[in-house]
Structure formats: structure tokens, C-alpha cells
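Progress report, Aim 2. The chain analyzed during this reporting quarter is listed below.
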Amino acid sequence: MKKLFLAAFAVFAFASVNAQEFKAGVNAGLPIGDAGDFSTFAIAVELGYLFEVSEDFQAGPTVGFNHSFGDSDIIDEDFSWLPIAAAGRFAVSEEFTLGADLGYAIGVAPDGIDSGFYYAPRVQYGVSDALDIVLAYRGISLDGISWSQITLGVEFGL
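Predicted C-alpha cells for the chain:
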């Protein structure tokens, strides 16, 4: 029930804002650390809305889906989370932005997977006004382990 409530909250929060301020991203990643022991590849998608706090700083909510493909030699299951977070972005220059997402990742699959604290520091390079290349470290602190990935992807302004 808690998972359903948080997912519904994220959908309604995003539905009430102006679509011109949205950011959407698609990322491919390599699991590292504990995650690398059980999975081989990861994908992450995200949707966020950033408010301009100052000329160089933006902040707002973000929601995503993070999926890791299980290593068939070790385990025959994939792992998925729904991260819901607060995002912050600081423009270091015209092209480069530093940022971080902090929040909670809800365990989706397999059944019974833990949920935990979500963190994702990132560096973005602006290719154009509507397209960034994003390098990020994504981590989820679970009971006794940390599920981590290094991802590379693109973020689009909608």
C-alpha cells in the first residue's frame, strides 16, 4: 500500500505542473560493488521538473525507474526500483552542470526486495539548450548492502 501511495503522489505532483519545464532522461549503466555481483547491465529512466531558484541553481522533484538485469550464471531474476527524489542542479559554466538526486527508492522486483535511501550525484554536459549528456553514480542503500551503478545517458528538455 505504501508503494502505491508514493507512486500515485509522484504522478499527481507531476500532472499539476507546466509540461514545458519537464526534463526526461534515459541512461545505460554498469552495476558495481554489490550490484555487480548479481547483475550485468542496468537501465534507468527518469522524469523531473526543475524550478529556477537562482540564475545558476535549479531544484525540484524527480521520479524514475531503475532496472538491473540479473546475471544468469548467479541468479535468474532482474532487480527494479522506483526512485522518488528531490533534485538539485548547479550550473558551473555554460556547458557543465553538477547535481544530485536524494530520496527513496521503492523496491519493485523481485517480490520482497528492500526499499532504501536513493542518491545520485551527476555531471552534465550541455550539447544544446534541450539536450545534455549525463554521467551519474546511482546508489541505493539497502539493509546491509549498497546497490550501485555508473550510468551514462541523455537528458531532454520537454
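The longest strand covers residues 57-70. Helices lie at 2-15, 34-38. These observations will guide the mutagenesis work planned for the next reporting period.
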